[in-house]
Design a protein that fits this description.
Blueprint (H helix, E strand, L loop, with lengths): L1 E4 L8 E3 L14 E3 L14 E7 L3 E7 L11 E6 L1
Antiparallel strand pairs: 1-4, 2-5, 3-4, 5-6
Bound molecules: copper (II) ion.
């Protein structure tokens, strides 16, 4: 799977949780990244390309990797692999 992330305003970065929600098995992650450094990278003026394989079915949360008060609770979502 490939996600291309682009921000039209300030620098943001998308960070996916590698483990599905409610997963107790931490021995195998749900998402396997080609380049883990891309996950959560925040760089102004540069997009992210997140290349990964969903190894297990489940729902993984993602949020903005940039920490700044007002955005914390809002810039988030979920990615579901069936
Ligand atoms: Cu953000």
């Amino acid at each position: 799977m490939r996600l291309k992330v682009h921000s039209n305003e300030e620098a943001h970065g998308l960070k996916l949780n590698l483990y599905p929600e409610g997963s107790k098995d931490k021995s195998s992650q749900g998402l396997l990244f080609a380049n883990l450094q891309e996950n959560g990278k925040v760089q102004k003026g540069e997009g992210q390309v997140l290349d990964f394989v969903a190894q297990r079915a489940g729902t993984c949360e993602f949020k903005c990797a940039k920490v700044w008060g007002i955005h914390d609770g809002r810039m988030r979502g979920k990615l579901r692999a069936n």
